[in-house]
């Protein structure tokens, strides 16, 4: 087909965009393209989570929802004029600095938030604060692109366990609860991580946020609907767990497990979602034809005008944002290349009153210390035959794949028979956990981290310490110490661990001596 035959059609397509919007939209597209291209590895990791983790599969729909939300506002947006805003470059620099902190500390959630916020900040920078106000809800809804929420699993496990035991007792079934384990006449049930309900809760919060915006005008009705969207899936998950236990009493655990997978996994929560919408249906107060924004009201608003005084050239601001991103990438590359020196000749010491032996465990327990530069494991036995297991790991740096405080690292080894039972008080600022395997094997584990002059169990503090060191270019090694003892008829785990700690030097000095730190 001749070129001149298609050129007019292309021209007509371009003319559908208001002249005032053509250059800003091109600049915004280039800014977003730069964010995607320069940080492609982070976006790829995020998208893999969307695709591979059932907890985050719903995020695959979020980009489509964002596009729909913008299209709904397009007729009113066309009545407004974008104005580039140079203070937005400061916002871009701030959120990319947040990405830097997450990247150098191996905290994917922080780096992912930084990149999503970078897209939002680019909108404010290139299109201006008035347009950003008009797009406020889509910009905020974009935060659902960040895969977050699995941190709620332990708390949701306990909530589900308490709801389940209450319903089990109410239905006349005798049961005993210990942590997340419920013992019934039909057998022992565990409220495992997969039964916490976190997947459904996260998806329901996203759905509730969208529905409350699209279908309600009253802020009170929106707040009420969101409260139901949060509470309903938590209660429903408790009912689900109770239903499995109730059915197992007459039909057996095998049948109950299959029923749970088919009915509860595919049908039950669809009914709960339908129930949520049915509850809110009669309270919807937004008409289907009501516009989402009022361009006239936004154009006449005085407060954006005060901000628009700090306008700038869109192309110049685009270049400034790109330069900022390149600086952050260079800073990250330099910081991630720093590793602390780790001594070669490290070994677990002798402890007065205790004899170091090979591992002596009734049931195998092997904590995870992925990526540690040095890892030492041994058992210590005293004159009474009591045994303490010691796991000592040293890391030259904290990053993806070698992070002491990462999810799945430490005292509770994933993909094993060991399960978290409940928290346990630990001395000297440590984190204490009571673990159980096979319904009969129990042990108590205390965990400490040491970085520089700090010793404790806060994973947040550990990350902050590593962020600081890498930012200023002074890496220090990180130490993880886990002390554990079995709980048996002849051995009180807490008492054994207390006596062992009394036989060592104060923990900070003891850990430094083992790692051969000056």
Write a concise keyword list for the protein shown above.
3 domains, 3-stranded antiparallel beta sheet, flat, alpha+beta, 11 strands, 518 residues, 18 helices
Task: Describe the protein in words.
This protein has 3 domains: 17-149 and 293-336, no CATH class; 152-281, no CATH class; 354-515, no CATH class. The strands form 2 sheets. Strands 4, 5, 6, 7, 8, 9, 10 and 11 form an 8-stranded antiparallel sheet that branches. Strands 1-2-3 form a 3-stranded antiparallel sheet, with helices on one face. The chain contains 18 helices and 11 strands. The radius of gyration is 28 Å and the shape is flat. With 518 residues, the chain is α+β, with helices and mostly antiparallel strands. Helix 5 (87-105) runs parallel beside helix 15 and helix 10 runs antiparallel to helix 11.
User: N- to C-terminal separation?
Assistant: 78 Å
Mean pLDDT figure = 89
Element string (H = helix, E = strand): HHHHHHHHHEEEHHHHHHEEEEEEEHEHH
Outline type: flat
Unreliable residue runs: 1-8
For the record, the count of structural domains works out to 3
How are the secondary structure elements laid out?
Layout: H1 3-15, H2 19-38, H3 40-52, H4 62-77, H5 87-105, H6 108-127, H7 129-134, H8 136-141, H9 153-170, E1 176-178, E2 181-184, E3 187-190, H10 198-215, H11 219-251, H12 253-281, H13 295-300, H14 303-308, H15 314-336, E4 354-357, E5 374-382, E6 387-395, E7 418-424, E8 431-437, E9 441-451, E10 454-456, H16 459-472, E11 478-487, H17 493-503, H18 507-515
Antiparallel strand pairs: 1-2, 2-3, 4-5, 5-6, 6-11, 7-8, 8-9, 9-10, 9-11
Helix pairs in contact: 2-6, 2-15, 5-6, 5-15, 5-16, 6-15, 9-11, 10-11, 11-12
């Amino acid at each position: 087909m001749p070129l001149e035959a298609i050129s007019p059609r292309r021209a007509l397509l371009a003319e559908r965009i208001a002249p005032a919007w053509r250059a800003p939209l091109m600049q915004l597209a280039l800014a977003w393209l730069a964010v995607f291209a320069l940080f492609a590895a982070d976006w790829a990791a995020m998208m893999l989570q969307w695709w591979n983790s059932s907890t985050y599969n719903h995020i695959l729909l979020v980009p489509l929802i964002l596009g729909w939300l913008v299209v709904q506002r397009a007729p009113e947006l066309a009545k407004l004029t974008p104005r580039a805003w140079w203070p937005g470059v400061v916002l871009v620099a701030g959120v990319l600095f947040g990405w830097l902190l997450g990247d150098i500390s191996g905290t994917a959630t922080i780096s992912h938030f930084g990149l999503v916020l970078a897209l939002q900040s680019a909108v404010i920078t290139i299109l201006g604060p008035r347009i950003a106000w008009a797009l406020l809800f889509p910009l905020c809804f974009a935060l659902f692109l960040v895969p977050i929420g699995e941190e709620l699993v332990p708390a949701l496990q306990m909530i589900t366990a308490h709801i389940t035991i209450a319903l089990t007792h109410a239905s006349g079934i005798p049961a005993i609860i210990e942590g997340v384990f419920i013992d019934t006449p039909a057998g022992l049930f565990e409220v495992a991580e997969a039964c916490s309900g976190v997947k459904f809760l996260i998806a329901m919060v996203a759905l509730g946020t969208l529905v409350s915006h699209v279908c309600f005008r009253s802020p009170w009705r929106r707040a009420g609907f969101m409260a139901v969207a949060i509470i309903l899936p938590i209660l429903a998950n408790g009912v689900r767990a109770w239903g499995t236990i109730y059915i197992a009493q007459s039909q057996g655990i095998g049948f109950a497990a299959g029923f749970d997978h088919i009915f509860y996994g595919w049908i039950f929560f669809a009914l709960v979602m339908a129930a949520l919408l049915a509850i809110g249906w009669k309270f919807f107060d937004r008409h289907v034809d009501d516009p989402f924004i009022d361009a006239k009201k936004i154009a006449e608003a005085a407060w954006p005008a005060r901000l628009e005084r700090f306008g700038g050239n869109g192309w110049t601001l685009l270049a400034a944002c790109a330069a900022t991103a390149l600086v952050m990438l260079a800073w990250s590359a330099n910081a991630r290349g720093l590793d602390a020196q780790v001594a070669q000749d490290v070994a677990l010491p002798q402890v007065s009153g205790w004899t170091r032996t090979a591992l002596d465990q009734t049931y195998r327990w092997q904590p995870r210390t992925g990526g540690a530069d040095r890892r030492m494991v041994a058992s210590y036995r005293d004159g009474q035959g009591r045994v303490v297991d010691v796991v000592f790991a040293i890391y030259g740096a904290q990053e993806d794949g070698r992070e002491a405080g990462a999810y799945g690292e430490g005292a509770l080894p994933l993909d094993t028979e060991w399960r978290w039972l409940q928290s346990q008080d630990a001395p000297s600022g440590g984190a204490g956990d009571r673990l159980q395997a096979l319904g009969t094997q129990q042990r108590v584990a205390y965990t400490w981290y040491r970085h520089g002059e700090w010793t404790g169990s806060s994973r947040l503090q550990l990350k902050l310490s590593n962020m600081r060191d890498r930012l200023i270019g002074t890496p220090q090694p990180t130490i993880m110490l886990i002390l554990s003892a079995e709980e048996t008829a002849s051995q009180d785990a807490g008492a054994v661990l207390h006596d062992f700690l009394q036989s060592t030097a104060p923990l900070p000095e003891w850990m430094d001596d083992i790692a051969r730190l000056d």
